[in-house]
Amino acid sequence: MATVFTTKGDMDESLLEKREGVVDNDHEYTKWVEYWHEGELVHRSAHVTLKQAAVWSDSEVAQIG
Amino acid sequence: MANTQSMCTSFMGQLFTGTHNFGVGVTRGSTAADTFYAALFLASSTINASTTAYTGTVGSVAMSGEVSGTNYTPGGTAISSWNAPTATNSSATAGVAFTTPAANVSYTNVTLTTAFDAVLIFNNSQGSSGNRPAVSVHTFGSQTITAGTFTLTMPSNTTTTALLRLSTT
After folding, report:
1. ipTM field
2. How far is B113 from chain A (nearest CA, A)?
3. pTM of the predicted model, to two decimals?
4. Is residue B118 one of the residues assigned to a domain?
């Protein structure tokens, strides 16, 4: 069985309630996962894929000046 | 033949490597690549294009507004390597220089209970402790982490998606 690192140490995944979610928009693609034990959040991880880059272009400079 | 007014494509790429200095600049100690860090910031903080520096000290003193929590070290995580800066152009006056970290950035087994929504990339090789030059700010949906891992997956290193791009259009 898989184990999950939690606030209570490593726990068997079968003892936990798993919740997952995804955010997908122009800015990011994010997946998160939570594990709950007896109504308490004991683990939450998130993985963010950045989509928008930091860009400096002369068109943006033109807006300044 | 005819001459064409343009910023040289190679110049834009060289801005990423410190080849040119138009003013009184830093004295570089070596030709090695600088070390960059990625620090996380609270949703309640204010970092943006006006942010000039990371004012904490990597490994010991957090910057105002930076996250704190179990297994998170002030300054965040070092970015292990970058793709070699590249410059290309589609015409005499339209070009782009770009680069992206070559690996994802992860914060492992951390607990960050106060919501955060931004990462500040800064240069820990230039400036001085308490005043490390800022590079860029990237935002995302507000997050918390509990005994877990936060990973920033980098975009593809292309002209249109690279993490850092300088362009003329």
Report:
1. 0.85
2. 10
3. 0.90
4. yes
Per-residue HEC secondary structure of B74-134 comes to CCCEEECCECCCEEEECCCCCEEEEECECCCEEEEEEEEEEEEEEEEEEECCCCECCEEEE
CB contact under 8 A, B146 and A44: yes
How many domains would you assign to chain B? 1
Q: Could you tell me if B15 and B42 are in contact, meaning their C-beta atoms sit under 8 angstroms apart?
A: no
The 10s digit of each residue's pLDDT in B86-123 is 998 877 777 889 999 999 999 999 999 999 999 999 99
* Farthest CA pair distance, chain A: 62
Contact B98, B158 (CB under 8 A): yes
More confident residue, B27 or A56: B27
- Average pLDDT for B68-92: 92
Cross-chain Cβ contact A46/B152 below 8 Å: no
Q: Domain range holding A47?
A: 3-64
Question: How much is the pLDDT for A65?
Answer: 46
B contact test, residue of A47, A59, A61 with most B CBs within 10 A: A47
Would residue B89 count as lying in a domain?
Answer: no
Domain of B57 in residue numbering reads as 33-82+103-155
